[in-house]
Task: inverse folding
């Protein structure tokens, strides 16, 4: 029986048990006038059964969740929705970290990345690539990512910053057209719209030419993609697999571990990573959100090996296929002089790699921390780091959207603004459209660009991937975009924000309440 079908059957049984006990108990209360020894025994039975039921499911939630905030949130759901609340927990809230870790043990596709990182750790120990106090954050960060993400560093790279969907899609399609051996394509969202079909047709064309096309799509992010779209790719010879299929994608859209990565690798030589999915809204065609501001990277060089390795690891997890490494990692000449690392994180990792990387960048910054994020729901340590940095005189600036694309996340973000403003963090509301980039810039010497938002879901739950760049020219280029985004934003005033309507505060409280489980 399919694992999700088993889960649904189990959930139905739980509903019948929980609701049956619950309703049976209250039915007996309604017939209070009947005096019978049997009725009394049944009342006692239902009292104890319902109490035992609540105790058991509460104990399961308590033991499985190490995060007190999540535990309290789920217990509240259980209290408000007896029976059904525990079903929601079984479907969406359980900790699958050990399951993912176990299934990925022995994975061969990741061996190249692990070996490269291991050699660097053994040979260098405490890395000091840059020298001088000004590069302290880079040295600390490189060492951290070597250890918590097995992310080797490389200096033979060239990086092109692709600002917004039009330039990014054009560059992606050009690289796809030039593919000779293989195309690896992994996205959280692929839309069945104009640009989605443009990519589909290009991939189909390359498959017909004999190029091996492998596609990973998230089954929740792509739940509206349609069987016809997928079948066309398969018929043309593309290999396409869903990531962690779900039975009820509408219900689990916000309550499940998802593959939020956006990766393209062409022939093992050209790679793309960043904030853009595949869809017309990323070209500014969504009437509500309007202009879409985002950032993606094109990478040439040895860092593409890391993108390739992460894709191959995901492919092996989904298909059990181990592909020929000789075809996946071609020899490269001189590509450039950008030093960088590609780091992935997710429930399969023993460490919260990207959360720790963000924490290190923030806590070691001495001059400035500039952040762009669509969702401002930081984990407690990140929030404290931002507050402490601002209070100590570091220039902390954060750009967030003025519009919402996810209701509860938007209001959870709003809930964090006042405390950050009071500490001296400068927050700007982007008014030109919707800003979706995930960028962290520190001291003009380090940058992170990728898929991880500054929220609990990205940094603790989803499968994510970020590029960490230690090239002042590339950082300067990203800072130029940040300056432009500031021009298209309005500074949030503490005085004005503190006078927001009471109903705003109620919505913020709701967002805060569900933020640990959303």
Result:
């Amino acid at each position: 029986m399919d694992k999700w079908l088993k889960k649904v059957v189990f959930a139905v049984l739980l509903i019948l048990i929980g609701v049956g006990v619950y309703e049976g108990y209250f039915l007996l209360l309604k017939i209070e006038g009947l005096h019978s020894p049997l009725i009394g025994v049944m009342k006692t039975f239902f009292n104890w059964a319902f109490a035992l039921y609540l105790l058991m499911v509460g104990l399961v939630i308590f033991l499985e969740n190490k995060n007190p905030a999540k535990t309290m949130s789920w217990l509240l759901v259980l209290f408000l929705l007896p029976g059904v609340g525990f079903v929601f927990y079984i479907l969406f809230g359980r900790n699958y970290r050990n399951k993912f870790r176990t299934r990925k043990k022995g994975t061969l596709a990741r061996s190249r990345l692990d070996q490269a990182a291991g050699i660097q750790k053994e040979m260098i120990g405490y890395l000091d690539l840059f020298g001088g106090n000004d590069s302290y954050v880079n040295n600390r960060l490189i060492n951290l990512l070597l250890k918590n993400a097995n992310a080797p560093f490389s200096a033979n790279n060239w990086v092109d910053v692709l600002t917004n969907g039009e330039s990014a899609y054009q560059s992606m399609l050009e690289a796809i057209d030039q593919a000779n051996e293989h195309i690896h394509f992994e996205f959280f969202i692929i839309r069945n719209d104009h640009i989605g079909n443009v990519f589909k047709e290009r991939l189909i064309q390359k498959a017909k030419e004999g190029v091996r096309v492998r596609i990973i799509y998230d089954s929740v992010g792509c739940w509206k993609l349609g069987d016809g779209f997928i079948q066309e790719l398969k018929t043309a010879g593309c290999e396409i697999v869903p990531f962690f299929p779900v039975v009820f994608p509408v219900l689990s859209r916000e309550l499940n571990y998802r593959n939020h990565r956006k990766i393209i690798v062409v022939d093992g030589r050209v790679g793309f990573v960043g904030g853009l999915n595949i869809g017309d809204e990323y070209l500014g065609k969504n009437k509500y959100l309007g202009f879409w501001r985002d950032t993606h990277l094109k990478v040439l060089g040895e860092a593409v090996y890391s993108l390739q390795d992460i894709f191959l690891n995901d492919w092996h997890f989904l298909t059990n296929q181990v592909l020929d490494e000789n075809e996946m990692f071609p020899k490269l000449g001189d590509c450039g002089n950008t030093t960088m690392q590609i780091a992935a994180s997710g429930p399969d990792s023993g460490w919260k790699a990207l959360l720790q990387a963000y924490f290190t960048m923030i806590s070691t910054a001495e001059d400035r921390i500039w952040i762009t994020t669509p969702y401002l729901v930081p984990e407690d340590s990140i929030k404290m780091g931002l507050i402490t940095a601002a209070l100590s005189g570091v220039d902390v600036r954060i750009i967030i959207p003025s519009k919402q694309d996810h209701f509860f996340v938007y209001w959870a973000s709003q809930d964090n603004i006042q405390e950050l403003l009071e500490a001296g963090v400068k927050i700007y509301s982007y008014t030109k459209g919707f800003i979706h980039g995930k960028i962290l810039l520190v001291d003009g010497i380090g940058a992170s660009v990728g898929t991880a938002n500054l929220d609990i879901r990205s940094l603790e739950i989803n499968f994510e991937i970020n590029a960490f760049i230690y090239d002042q020219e590339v950082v300067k280029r990203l800072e130029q975009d940040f300056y432009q985004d500031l021009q298209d934003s309005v500074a949030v005033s503490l005085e004005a924000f503190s006078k927001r309507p009471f109903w705003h505060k109620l919505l913020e409280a709701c967002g805060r309440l569900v933020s640990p489980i959303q």
Q: What stands out?
A: The chain is about 50% helix and 20% strand. The CA atoms of residues 178 and 311 lie 20 Å apart. Confidence is low (pLDDT under 50) at residues 105-109.
